[in-house]
Structure formats: C-alpha cells, structure tokens
C-alpha cells in the first residue's frame, strides 16, 4: 500500500458564508475589524457572537448603534440525523433582528435557513450555509457587498414577481388544479 492509500480520509467542513452590507460602510468603516475573503475556523462548541464589544464578540462591528452583543450563531447537529445547522439568537435588548422576514425579539432564536437575509437597523447580511461533515469545527467566510443585498439577490423567501398573462389566469392556477397550461389559438376563444 502506498502512503496515499493509507492516508486518513479528508472530511469536508461546514462553511457559513456571510456577506455584509450597510449603506454608510464607505464613510463609517464599521466593518474594518472583520477579516474578509479569508476562511476562519471556529470550534464547534464555541458561540460566534457579533456586536461592538471586542472583549466578548468574535466579529466586531464598529458602530455605536450596534449593541454590545447583537446576535450569536451556534453550530449544532439535528437530533437523530447527521445534518449540521446553525441557530441564530438575538442578544440585543434594543434592536429587533429579522431573519427572512421572521422578527426576533431579545433572546428569541430560530434555526438559520440554508440561505437567508439577516437584518437589524440598516445592516443586511446574506447568510449561506455550505454543508460539511466535520463535527469538531466549522468555518466562516466573510464577504463585503457593494450593493444592497435585498435588491441584488432573489431568494425563495422573498415574494417572486411573475408576469400575469393577458387572459388574467395565472399559470399557478392550472398547477393547483392538477392541469398543465395548454396553448389555445386566439381564434378559438
């Protein structure tokens, strides 16, 4: 056997991609303490906290309107499955946090969808989970958006705008009836 054949199998690592946006980021530089474009390992038993208190938060936002601890992300494995997820908890007493239009008050928490938009104040964060197998740690990969995320991305959570045909009957009407739309010659009407 060669050393290649005897080498341990590499396991993939769950990676949480976070893309940050704030309308005043160029003037106020509130993201200057974040490490963009480089993956960072976080132990699975650590809670990743975001806020302005650098002694408590791993990810610092340099803005007096951000709470000392704004929110946290906890890595976990779902019960009776091998699926890894994140839980997001609002730790701000003053600011509500929204995750895909679900509003979280102080100490409220939910499972983070695999792709979602997190908002508080003027901050928008696109979160995307890349699945992995490692139980010991996960990675974060931070990005900076130049344009507002809510306008730039089309997510399943946001209502989609579908064109309405001239006859006023939506294609989803046929699908809910169990029928597929058929083409009709306008002379047959």
Please give the share of residues in helix: under 10%
Query: Low-confidence spans: pLDDT under 50, at least 5 residues?
Result: 152-164, 170-176
Q: Quickly give the CATH architecture.
A: Sandwich
Mean pLDDT: 83
Estimate the global geometry from the Cα principal axes: globular
Query: Strand count, sense and closure of the main sheet?
Result: 7 strands, mixed
Question: Can you tag this structure with a few keywords?
Answer:
189 residues, mainly beta, Tumour Suppressor Smad4, 7-stranded mixed β-sheet, 5-stranded mixed β-sheet, 4 helices, 33% strand, globular
Summarize, please.
This is TRAF-interacting protein with FHA domain-containing protein A. By secondary structure, the protein is mainly beta.
What does this structure look like?
- The protein has 189 residues and is mostly beta strands.
- The protein has one domain: Tumour Suppressor Smad4.
- Helices cover 10% and strands 33% of the residues.
- The protein has four helices and twelve strands.
- The chain has helices at 3-6, 25-28, 149-152, 171-176; strands at residues 15-21, 40-43, 47-51, 59-60, 71-77, 84-90, 97-99, 102-104, 109-111, 115-120, 123-130, 137-144.
- The protein has a seven-stranded mixed β-sheet with strand order 2-12-1-11-10-7-8, with no helix packed on it.
- It is globular and about 55 Å long.
- The termini are far apart.
- Residues 152-164 and 170-176 have low confidence and may be disordered.
